[in-house]
Design goal:
Length: 229
């Protein structure tokens, strides 16, 4: 995919004209990060926006005791690093490549120039920030209101909704997250997640293969019952 095609696939840039996309592509640069590589650190000053070309990026916050909370995992066509460009504050979280990842980066001045002339880009940014706030609200309520079993079920529902692909038999498959990743999303231990997943497998609500997790077509209803206890 060329840089221009990639930018076109990013919803906030989709209303730019071909000439505008071309000039935006000219000021972007590509960079690669190996799996496990840190792209940006929480609290650092930030002057770059990143768009994911391929791979996957984990956005998280490290507690003083070294424990990590995962806020989000994002993939191709999604962007991050916009907050520091918008409010001039340090980076709000750390971003790490969890697969070999290729990014397009856009410097602050170029980002500001492109949003100035285009209210559609600003409107798109506001939409994405609203969606992230909704998701964060849902995470807060999950953490505050559900027991650990319900939280694990909620993470699986979120992943199936956000990353799931429908199989021929109607079931939904999505990336097999590590037990540690799931634990870090919901503030529990890896061992607890392992136990809960085994339980969901025993109830035939979840199948785990080496690379994927699979849930039934009616997973939202089935897992809702789990979260209601
Ligand atoms: P910035 O603060 O510049 O650097 C860290 C980035 O992580 C931030 O911009 C956002 O792009 C992203 N980020 C922070 N919080 C969340 C969240 N709750 N969900 C998704 N992405 C986030």
């Amino acid at each position: 995919m060329t840089d221009r095609e990639l930018l076109l696939s990013v919803p906030i840039f989709s209303e730019l004209t071909p000439a505008e996309l071309e000039s935006l592509a000219r000021v972007c640069s590509r960079r690669q990060h190996r799996k496990g590589g840190v792209i940006l650190y929480e609290k650092d000053p930030g002057d770059t926006l990143f768009v994911i070309v391929s791979g996957r990026v984990k956005v998280g916050i490290q507690g003083d005791d070294g424990r990590e909370v995962i806020l989000s995992v994002i993939g191709p066509g999604e962007f991050f690093g916009e907050m520091s460009l918008l409010d001039d504050e340090p980076r709000s979280a750390t971003a790490v490549a969890i697969e070999d990842t290729e990014l397009l980066s856009l410097a602050r001045a170029d980002f500001q120039q492109v949003i100035q002339g285009h209210s559609s880009i600003l409107a798109g940014l506001v939409r994405v920030l609203s969606a992230r706030l909704r998701r964060a609200n849902s995470q807060i309520s999950t953490l505050a209101l559900l027991d650990v079993y319900g939280r694990v079920a909620r993470v699986l529902v979120d992943m199936a909704r956000e990353e799931g692909k429908r199989l021929k038999d109607g079931r939904i498959s999505f990336r097999r997250a590590t037990h540690q990743e799931i634990a870090n999303r919901i503030g529990t231990t890896r061992e607890t997640v392992t136990r809960m997943l085994k339980d969901l497998e025993r109830q035939h609500l979840l199948e785990v293969t080496p690379r994927e997790m699979i849930v039934g077509a009616d997973f939202e209803k089935a897992f809702e019952q789990v979260t209601e206890g």
